[in-house]
Each structure stands twice: as C-alpha cells, then as structure tokens.
Amino acid sequence: MAKDLNQVVYQIYPLSFKDSNGDGIGDLNGIITELDYLKDLGVDVIWLSPVYQSPMDDNGYDISDYYEVNPMFGSKTDLMNLLNKAHEKGLKVIMDLVLNHTSDEHVWFKEALKGPNNPYYDYYIWSDTPSDITSVFSGSAWQYVEHLKQYYFHLFSVKQPDLNWQNKTLRTEIYRMINYWLDLGFDGFRLDVIDLIGKDVYSKRLADGPYLDAYLEELYETCFKGREVFTVGEMPGISLKRANEITSTHPALDMVFQFDHIALDEQPGQGKWMLKTLDLHALKQTLNNTQQIFKDKGWPSLFLSNHDQPRAVSRYGNPSEKYRNDSAKMLFTLLFGMKGTPYIYQGEEFGMTGIKMAIEDYKDIETKNIYQELKQKGFKEADIMNSIYAKSRDNSRTPMQWNETVNAGFSTGSPWLKVNPNYVLINRDTDQKDPNGIITYVKDLLKLRKSNPLFNTGAFNLLFEDHPNLFIYERASETERIVVVCNWTDVTIENPLSIEKMSVLLSNSTDHITLKPYYTGIYYEKRTIHA
Ligand code: NOJ
Predict the structure, then answer these.
(1) What integer pLDDT is reported at residue 131 of this predicted model?
(2) Which of 250, 274, 276, 386 is most enclosed, with most CB atoms within 10 A?
(3) 201 near 159, Cβ under 8 Å?
(4) Whose CA is nearest to atom 11 of ligand 1?
C-alpha cells in the first residue's frame, strides 16, 4: 500500500517550546502537556528537533552521543513517555537525524584526535592543506589541529566536524543507531543536510555529491526497508528537478525540503544576509515550478518556516497589529492549497513574529559569527543589524508564546533566549479564544485539505499570472475545481474573477468582490462538461 503522505507535520524546537521545571529551557515533559493541543490543531506528525546529548554549540545539531537524551530536555524515560502518549493520541513522532557531522565532543572525534593510527581517525575528513571551502557559519571550513599538523573539515561550526561517510565502518555504526531509534518505536526522521553525505571534499563536490545515491540506497536497505517510516530530507543544496528525482526514485526519502522559494529575498549567490525585496512574480514562478515538476511523481513538502528561517508573517506577510492576523491566514492558504505535506513550525499557527534584540542577546552561533565577519569586512553596524533583524535564526527561536502571564507562560524561570515582548498581545490562548483567530482558521484549512483530494491531485494552474498584487491559482480536475485567491499586498483590489457560480469554502473575509489587504479565499465549483 502506498504511504499516506497527506499528513500534517508540526515542528517542535524543544529548547523554546515549553519548560516544565522552571530552568528556562523547554523540555520533554513540557511537550507532553501540549499533545492534546496539537492533536486538536489537526497535526498528524510531530518533528522533534534534536534532543540528543550535545554541548549545544549549535543548539543540539552538534551531537555528542546519538543514544542519549540531553538531560536539559529530560531523560530517556521522558522521551519514551512522550512517544507513548503521542501514539495513544494517534500522533507520530519523528526524530531529527544529524548524520553529516557530530560534535567535536563525540567520543569518535576525541579518539580521532589521537591520530591516523586510531580506528576513528578515518571517521572524519582530514587534509594537510586547507582548500578555500568556507563554513556555512563563517570562516574557513578547515580547522588546524596543532599536534596532528593537519586540518579537519567542518562545514558548520568548528565544533561540528564532518563525518567521512566513505568509511564503511562509520556507516555501519550510523545505521545501527538509526535502527535503535526505529526499534524503540519512533515513526521516522527529518534528516539534517542529508544532501551533503555523498560529498567529495577534495574535488569540492559537496551537496549532491558523487556518493549520495549509493548511500541513500544503503540507508534504505539497512534501516527503512520493510518498516512504515516517515522521512523528510533537508537538502538546501539541490535543485527542484533533483528534489523531484530523489523523492520519486529513492524510497529512503518520502520528501525533501528544497529551498528555491526560500532564497527569493536574497541577492542571488551572495548568501542569506544580503537582502533583496521579494518579488511576487518570482514567488509565483518558483511555486508554480515546484507544483509542475511534482505534478505526476515525487512529493513536495509545503513550508515557509522552521527553526532556521525567520518568522513567516514578518518575512512575507505583515506583522503590524492591523494586518498580522489576515496576512498569517493568507500565507497558510497560499501554501496549503498546494500539493504536498504541510509543515507548521511552532507558533506559526497563531502568527508569532520576529524580534529585534541588542547583538549581545542573540544566542545563535551563525548570527554571532556573521556579525563579526561583516564587521571585519567593514559593513556598517546599522546594515548588519538590519540583516540580522530580517534573517537571524533567533527570530524563530524565541520562546513559544502560550499566554499573557510572565514569560508568555513558557517558563517560570529565566528563559534561555528573550521572550518577544509582544506576547501580551500575541499568544496561543488569546488567539484560541478569538473566533476570528488564526488557530481556528488553520484548523478549518487543514480539515478542508483533508476533505478534498483535489488539493493533492488537481492540476495546478496559475491564474492572472501577471497580476502585481494577487496570487491566484486553481486546482482542477475535469469535473471540479478549487480556486485559491490571495492578496499578497496591503492594497484593496477588485476581484478579477467572476465568482457567481462558485461557493466559498474558506476565507478571512465576507467580501469577495472588493478584496481587502491580505485577503484570502478558497472557492469551489463543479465544472460544466461540454459535450
Ligand atoms: C540544518 C539545521 O536545520 C540547522 O539548524 C543546523 O545548524 C545545520 N543543519 C547544521 O546541522
């Protein structure tokens, strides 16, 4: 039987979700208290960002023991409790698998540092001379080790040495670990930067490297085959076409995160910090491309947000008091009317916004490094901070805003990262009580998606493609069609569609003729069959 990928995934970033013991850090027991909320929202799958043992240089994406739970999040028993309670409610839990690198505090790396005669040395990537490859987190990707007179390779922080996947024993160890979590009952994985595992550093083929296909195949055969596993691979370095090929040919990955639509507010080729105003036309083209490429085969993931991306409503919508609610609903509708698996990042469901902090208050390693790098390159402080306000990963990592009590109900202690002061107005409870709230809308939208297969099967056609304010598309079969209308701007527009014969399935407005700023609506009609 084909896997049901028409599921809704909710990402939890444990550090910032809910603190149950007052230490200022979110934890597993905190998550357990909110499972009913997630179920009620319409979630099927919880993706848990890493909770493994880690020195937290990159907030858990630097793992020092793949088999242990970081005590700051709780114990293995708490994790199993979370899994069992989730299962009782019909929720799946997928773990975050970080396979491209470990922490430098992992025992493998500590052993590797003993030199070429140690069996773990070859688990990592070494060179006598550094090449010009740079780290995603600034500076060279090569770190010198004095006593070895050699450099090790790290595409992320210095404390995240890359694993050498070409070592067969390493791969066997990794597969053993994956099977351990599957045997415990976990339902699958989000695979961190998995496009990098097939790399050949020496010929500088990093993302989608020469061994990627072979390793994905081996991963499937050794771990996933014969099991019901939900998998999504993060692949920032691949093209849409390749994403489609991978999800239609590799059973190891049900879907991938591909980033063409995410990179549209960056100066092409200059990295995420060099800002560019997003052009609606480019967004239409990119999302249209995705939908066309994935039309008949492969499966896309539908996401705007995660723990690495700034808050969607601040980035693409309008976070002002006047328009936040409508623009958040518009963004959800625009995306979730398409073919694919919907992803919601914690707090997105009630329109949490980005934050502006003093540089000392940022905790993210990428942000701290780029600040130093851009300063050294002579960029003006104000320009650097503008980029950071727009793009820092801490925008989406501020604690979850549950209610209007102290620290937004996240923690009774001192939160590890500043709570956005707007929590008094923007929080889960306030939104949930509001009949016009975003949560209610998202619930209705998810139900609607599930009630009509056309959302996944209908032909995707852009309508009024050149309209400068409206993003309109249809999902059509021969007998019926759904039309999604979104006003991307703060301007009031006349609806260019004649909608007399259509019923409105969902909208953030009662007026479908004169479309208010950030209007959104989903219409339905049976099609007349012409003889
Ligand atoms: C992608 C993860 O989403 C990000 O948070 C992390 O810093 C890098 N991979 C490195 O693991």
Answers:
(1) 97
(2) 250
(3) no
(4) 61
pLDDT per position as a tens digit, 132-158: 999 999 999 999 999 999 999 999 999
Q: Is the CB of 156 under 6 A from ligand 1?
A: yes
Question: Where is 286: in which H helix or E strand?
Answer: helix 280-293
Which residues are the active-site residues?
192, 234
- Encoded tokens for 209: 């490297």
Domains and CATH numbers, the chain: 9-86+238-444 (3.20.20.80), 107-153 (3.90.400.10), 456-526 (2.60.40.1180)
Q: How far is the CA of 321 from the centre of ligand 1 (A)?
A: 32
By the 8 A CB rule, do 273 and 137 touch?
no
Tokens encoding 348: 């997105």
Please work out whether the CB of residue 162 comes within 6 Å of at least one atom of ligand 1: no
Provide the pLDDT confidence category of residue 528 given band limits of 50, 70 and 90: confident
CB contact set of 178 (below 8 Å; sequence gap of 6+):
97, 189, 219, 222, 223
Element (H, E) at 153: strand 150-153
